Amino acid sequence: MKWSSRTWAIFGAAIVAVALVFGLAQYRQARALRLRMEASRQRAVFNLISHIENMEGSLAKARAASTVGQQTTFLTTCWSHSQAAQENIANLGLSDMDLSKMQRFVAQVGDYSLVLSQKLARGDAVTQAEWQELGRLENSVKDLARALSETGMSAAVTGARFGLAALGNLGFLASPTDEALHRGFSEIDSLVQSVPSPTYDGPFSDRSLATKPLANPGPEVSLEDARKRGLGFLHPGEPYSSTRVETIDGAIPCYMVTGKRADGSEVTTAVTRQGGAPLWSVDQKVRGAPRMDVATARKAAEDFLTSRGLTSLKETGWRKPGRNADRVIFTFAATAVLPDGGGTEQVILYPDMVKIEVALDTGEIIGFDQTAYLTNHRERGLKAPLVSRDEAGKVLKSDLKISDLPRLAVIPLLPTREVLAWEFRVQHGNDFYLVYVNAMTGQEEMVLQMVTDDTGTMTM
C-alpha cells in the first residue's frame, strides 16, 4: 500500500508532536529538579548562617557568664551549633568548591569550646590565656557570620532575579545563584585561612589533623583501580554520563572519584591510596518527600554495612536534620569481646565510628563516612576490668536511676588517650544521661546529657 503525500505529512506531524511533548516533559522535569536543588541549597545556606550566628552568641555569653554552670552550658551550646553548621556545609552541594577550610575552622571552634567545657566540668580552672583565645575565636566567628550573611543575601537576590531564566538550560550549567555562592565562598575561604588555629588537645586540633595515618594500611592502589572501587561503592552498576578522578594530598592521601549522572547530580567517593578503602561517599541527588519510617531506613543501613563487609557494628544513635527531613543519619561503632568474670563482655569501641545516611524517599544510601573507623580500628589488647559493674555503680549519685544494664565501652578523652569505662544510662527527673566510670580506676570520667525527640538522639 502506497501512502499519499497527505498521509506522510500527517505521519510526520505526529512524530514532531510526540517529540515536542517528550521534549517539554524533559524540560519540565529538569526545571523541577533545578528548582529543588536551588531550594535545598538556599535552605542549607540560611541554616548555616543561623548556626554560625548562634555560635557567636554562645561564645559571647560564655565569656560574660560569672558561674561555672553557665559557662559550661554556653560552651557546650556552641559545640552543638558547630556540629549542625558542619552538616549544613556538607549539604551545600558545591562539589567544585573546596569548603574544607571553613568546615575545619567551624569544627575547631566547636571542639575548643567542648574542651574548655569539659575542663570546667572536671573542676579545673580555665586560664586567662584560654579566655583570650576564646575571645579571638569569637571575633573570627563574627566575621564569618557577616560574610555568610552577605553571601546568602547576594545568592537569594540573584536567584530571585535570574533563577527562572537559568532554569531553561537543560545541561545544568552554573546558574547565577551558583556564581554568587562561588564568589562569596571564595572570599570566605580567604577569610578563614587568615585565622590562626587555636592551640589545644582535641580531635580537630592542628596536631591531630596533621597526621592521621590509617590503623591498618594496605598496598597502594592505582588510579584506575580507585576509579572502579569508587564508582562501584555506593550504587554498584549505576551508569554515569561522565566520571573524573582527582588525587588529594591531605591527612589521609586519597583519590576523589566522582560520577556524574545525566540529570547533573553527582556521587563522590574518597578512596584511600593505601589499601583502596572507601573513606567517605556522598550522593548529591535532590531527594523527594519522605515515604518511609526510621525503622525501615535502619534496616537499609544495616543491610548496606553487611554487604560491604562491615560486621560486628552496633548502632549508637540516629538523627534527622530537621523534623521534615528527607534523610536520616545513623552512627555505628565497632565492638570487641572481652573476658569478664568467667564469661564474656561486649565492648563498644566509640572511637571506631561509622556514619551512614539513608534517603527517606527510596531507602537508598546517600552518605557514608568511615574515617574514624579506618584511623582507629586496631587490635587494642584490652584487659579485663579491675572495677566491676557493681563497684562502678557505687560512684553514681544516689538520686540517679539506672535505666539500662551498664556496658563496657572504650571512650576517647584526648586524641592520644582513650580509656575502658563502664557506660551507665541514667535518669534524673525527666532528663537522661550517659555516665562513664573508668573500669580500671573507678573514677568518673565523663557525663553526657541525652536529648531525644522526633529528630533523633543527641548527646551534649
Automatic annotation (TrEMBL):
Domain Sporulation protein YpeB N-terminal: 30-158
Any one Pfam family match given in the protein's UniProt record, by short name: YPEB_PepSY1-2
Gene Ontology terms: biological process: spore germination
Transmembrane portions of the chain: none
InterPro entries according to UniProt: YpeB_N (IPR048402), YpeB_PepSY1-2 (IPR014239)
Domain Sporulation protein YpeB PepSY1 and PepSY2 span(s) in chain numbering: 183-382
Protein name: Germination protein YpeB
Classification of source organism: Bacteria, Bacillati, Bacillota, Candidatus Fermentithermobacillia, Candidatus Fermentithermobacillales
